[in-house]
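Now for one record.
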Amino acid sequence: MQVKKGDIVTRKSYNHDTLFKVMNVKGTTCYLKGMDVRLYADSAIEDLSLASEEEQEELKMDMEEAEDDALDRSEFFYLPAKILHLDGDNEYLHRCLEYYKKHNIFAIGKRVNEVEIPMKIRGLLEEYKPDIVIITGHDAYFKKKGRLEDVHNYKNTENFIKAVKECRKYEKSHEKLVVIAGACQSNYEELIKAGANFASSPKRVNIHCLDPAIIATSVSLTERNKEIDLLSLLEKTKYGSEGMGGIMCNGLMYVGYPR
């Protein structure tokens, strides 16, 4: 089978469970990036199948319709919470920004390498003064390195933890600044301990590129006097509570009258 850079493929050995874009081909090895899951992988060409048009079309419909919050345009007016989204991956960042735009939420997106987020986040918080901040990109748990609990055995969890701690130096209150942190297989427990409201990944599974955006959008569009239904919110994400978790909190949207 001829596979070239830019093709959309699935892996036979994983029962075609994930769509990937071929980023590079070297000899008989293809280097892949998840189309919707925040995942890098490599694979032998012989293990790949070109994705059908139907599968690619399903991808376009997937998750973007996971949440369909609509504001009641009556005589009241609504001020959704402002989002600052920091992402190590430009393509995933763009998809999240499109998602916010679809839901009429004001969001600032910055592509920042995961290693640099801890150094840059304080300045961005002071510049944009968001209500919600997302810290994401790529991560992975390296089982061969050792224990699940050790943050040094992850690709970027330690960088995310440092960034969350910087957020809490800027604003201690979980109610005034909602922090959503992590990516695929991140150390969920340590991110929550560091001060995140929501984080990935309780079961160290991969997450959808829109999962942090789905959480942020729900918080942004829920009124300040209403508590977030945490269990229902997590079920809107790709893998539910296996991929995302967090603490109960209220929404951050202001409602006013008259329009």
Summary: Residues 8-60 form one domain. The chain has a mean pLDDT of 92. The CA atoms of residues 86 and 110 lie 5 Å apart.
